[in-house]
Specification:
Elements lengths: L4 E6 L5 H8 L6 E7 L4 E2 L2 E10 L1 H18 L4 E7 L1 E4 L5 E7 L2 H18 L2 E7 L2 E5 L4
Parallel strand pairs: 1-5
Antiparallel strand pairs: 2-7, 3-4, 4-6, 4-8, 5-7, 8-9
């Protein structure tokens, strides 16, 4: 199962093509990919950039647990969870989740489960920067 799980927490730019190449499998007819991007507004305020900070050892452990749970709960072959750390500007990618399965429904469901669970339980925080200041959001774990 380890070869079918790909977890990364990195200060490097996430690479969507690299993720797509890894998730492909000849036995899988369905690949679902969620790409989170930095948007330019939140609650009618203009966002300049985001700064992602993680408690790395625990974040990687939690991401691994999410992937393992997805593998056991859904009929999927492979799962990838990558998250960025550090400063990101508008349009950049803080998170990629990719799931491969024989059929599309399992891929869709597992992908949604993974991103929803990541946002609830993984110790990654973001600071949003505006013209008039900044604020921490996603203060969980």
């Amino acid at each position: 199962m380890e070869n079918n799980i790909n977890i990364k927490l990195t200060a490097e730019k996430l690479n969507l093509q690299e993720c797509y190449e890894w998730i492909q499998d000849p036995s899988c007819g369905g690949i679902s990919i969620f790409v989170g991007t930095v948007r330019n507004t939140t609650q009618q305020k203009t966002v300049k950039k985001l700064d992602f900070t993680a408690y790395s050892p625990m974040a990687v452990k939690e991401m691994q647990q999410i992937a393992e749970k997805a593998m056991s709960q859904f009929t999927i072959k492979k799962i990838l969870i990558h998250h960025a750390e550090g400063l990101l500007t508008i349009g950049e990618i803080p998170v990629i989740i990719a799931v491969a399965s024989a059929h599309r429904n399992a891929a869709f469901e597992a992908c949604q489960f993974a991103i929803d669970t990541l946002k609830e339980s993984v110790p990654i925080w973001k600071k949003e920067y505006f013209d008039d200041g900044e604020v921490w959001v996603n203060s969980h774990p």
